[in-house]
Amino acid sequence: MAKGTAKTTTGANLGFEAKLWTAADKLRSNMDAAEYKHVVLGLIFLKYISDSFGEHHQELLKDPMANPEDKDEYTAANIFWVPAEARWSFLQGKAHTTEIGKLIDEAMDAIEKDNKRLKNILPKNYARPDLDKAKLGELIDLIGTIGLGDKENRSKDILGRVYEYFLSEFASAEGKQGGQFYTPRCIVQLLVSMLAPLPGKRIYDPCCGSGGMFVQSEKFVEEHGGKIGDISIFGQESNPTTWRLAKMNLAIRGIEADLGQENADSFLKDLHKDRQFDFVIANPPFNMKEWGGEQLKKDARWQYGIPPEGNANYAWIQHFIRHLSPNGLAGFVLANGSMSSQQSGEGEIRKAIIEADMVDCMVALPGQLFYSTQIPACLWFLTRSKTGGKYRDRRGETLFIDARNLGVLKDRVHKELTAEDVAKIATTYHAWRGDNTTPRHSSPPRHSSEGWNPEQEKELDTVLQRYDEYKDIPGFCKAVTTAEIAAQNYILTPGRYVGMAPKENEDTEPFQDKMKRLTAELYAQFEESARLEKEIKANLIKLGFGEDK
Question: At 200, is the secondary structure helix, strand, or coil?
């Protein structure tokens, strides 16, 4: 794309993210998606903070009492200070020079130096010899066509849309490795809609990836009249590049979070060891084999049993429980095997957790939702307390939801849950839980490229504004007692409990009831037949064709 030839993108250009991704991907050439990801996302971040800075700079120029080059003028307005050598206009002017890579690295260094929140998180590898500088210049031209940081586009969340769309596309391009840091939006949205975090609460994700759980949690709070920062966010990430990506993702949205001073393994170096949280939300790696279990056999977290060294699923579950406050609620994704495995003591750990009455809800998900794996997945919801308070007393009860038949194909290999699917699952859970508040939902995608249009969003608003009285639905949901779960050998697979959905036109009426109803209908037809026979005979007599007896 030639410099200056493209029209600046605005929120009116619905679907532009896909076009932008296609253009950017063409410039990737032979570079791996894993490497290219940091090249592109770093430039998008730079463009965003430069746009925000530039707009405020113009406002200060109009104020004779202000100094447009005073760093404090920007920090006071919660805007990142961007030194002259890092401003987009300067870099754009140098985009097609051989030194552009070196200039970008220097720009990233300068921004980190002047903004402590960004220290050691920006990518600084643009000068490397294997990065085609001509392609880099074209990429700068392309990103230069997007207005990201001005007030109008911030209100339309242009930056969030581009950033999230690119994360998802990179995850798809990278396959398994990409999926380690990106959880599909519809799953994050479902988790957040069911947990319903509210202002003043503390939320924790010990394997936070790129921070998508936190972004959606903040959006949920905003939807309920709150604002960014009304919930306290804590997290941890072991991968150093993904940890920096999360810091960038939260920084561009103005979200404050404690992700620790460094990347670290949550099992071997728990950065929030002595803290408990109101909400735990996570998508840990499925069936993780090498997690350090041999070093942690006597760890205090294993209250319900020592997890096997060859699979971290039940280590994660007990880690989540350890960090739950007395009234806390955890929602997380795991492989389906976690619901039924009997290997290496996992069945005994699951039994102990069930007997402790901590399993609130289980959701079986459709297949093909993830970029990283074809392993079927489920959602677990655990709570330390099922008694009263905000919700009804649910002691000795667990809700099972089988959502395997929901979702639509997004492409040949990937499915996604629709707005209606999220609403159906979330409202079922809230109705069963007996919420005495009426939360709505976390913000759905607001543009057609992700499948939800404004009419669907309005419909979702209407559906989620109230919860009808809960009732079991064959094939979809069922409330089950702990005794019933015990009778199933403590297996938590929803399909075992919800039964089969009635087939179309299938007769589900009990035999005795059906016979009573049909007999009554038959006698009613006899009476009607006798009445009609009498009437017909009377008419025939009047016409002189019948006998009057």
Answer: coil
Task: Please state, in angstroms and rounded to a whole number, the distance separating the CA atoms of residues 312 and 315.
Answer: 5
DSSP state for residue 546 in the 8-state scheme: S
> What is the pLDDT, as a whole number, of residue 149?
55
Q: Pull the structure tokens for residue 313.
A: 């699923």
DSSP state of 412: S
CB contact at 8 A, 25 and 164: no
Beta strands in 291-443 (DSSP E): 324-335, 359-364, 377-383, 397-402, 408-409, 415-416
Please tell me the distance from the alpha carbon of residue 308 to that of residue 305, in angstroms, as a whole number.
9
Return the H-helix or E-strand segment holding 205: strand 202-205
Q: Are 46 and 107 in contact (CB under 8 A)?
A: yes
What pTM does this model have?
0.74
The domains found in the chain, sorted by start residue, are 16-174 (1.20.1260.30), 176-498 (3.40.50.150), 509-549 (no CATH)
| Dihedral in degrees, nearest 10, Cα atoms 26, 27, 29, 33 | -90
Q: What is the pLDDT of residues 141-166, one digit of tens each?
A: 988 887 765 565 554 455 556 666 67
Compute the C-alpha angle 71/74/77, nearest 5°: 150
Q: What's at 544, amino acid-wise?
A: G
Residue of 399, 405, 417, 380 lying closest to 475 (CA atoms): 405
Q: What single-letter amino acid sits at 19?
A: K
Cβ partners under 8 Å of residue 537, min gap 6: 546
Q: CA 136 to CA 142: how far, in whole Å?
A: 10
277-282 and 202-205 beta bridge pairing: parallel
End-to-end CA distance of the chain: 101
Please answer whether residues 152 and 10 qualify as being in contact, where contact means their C-beta atoms are separated by less than 8 angstroms.
yes
Environment class of 379 (CB within 10 Å of its CB; exposed 0-12, middle 13-18, buried 19+): buried
Return the pLDDT at 442.
37
Q: Within 10 A of 471 (CB to CB), how many other CB atoms are there? A: 11
- Residues contacting 146, CB < 8 A, separation 6+: 8, 9, 20, 44, 47, 158, 162
pLDDT digits (tens, 9 = 90+) for 340-362: 999 899 999 999 999 999 999 99
Question: Can you give the three-state secondary structure of 285-296, one letter per residue?
Answer: CCCCCCCCHHHC
Residues of the chain with pLDDT under 50: 1-14, 155-156, 176-181, 437-453, 456-457, 459-460, 462-465
In 3D space, the residue among 168, 471, 133, 190 whose CA is nearest the CA of residue 332 turns out to be 190
As a dihedral over the C-alpha atoms of residue 22, residue 27, residue 32, residue 34, rounded to 10 degrees, the angle is -60
Rama region for 196: left / alpha / beta (φ>0; ψ in -120 to 50; rest): left
Nearest to 419 by CA among 453, 377, 382: 453
- Cα gap 141→136, rounded to integer Å: 9
Quick check: 281 and 205 in contact, CB under 8 A? yes
What distance in Å separates the CA atoms of residue 303 and residue 300, rounded to the nearest whole number? 7
The answer to whether 44 touches 108, Cβ cutoff 8 Å, is no
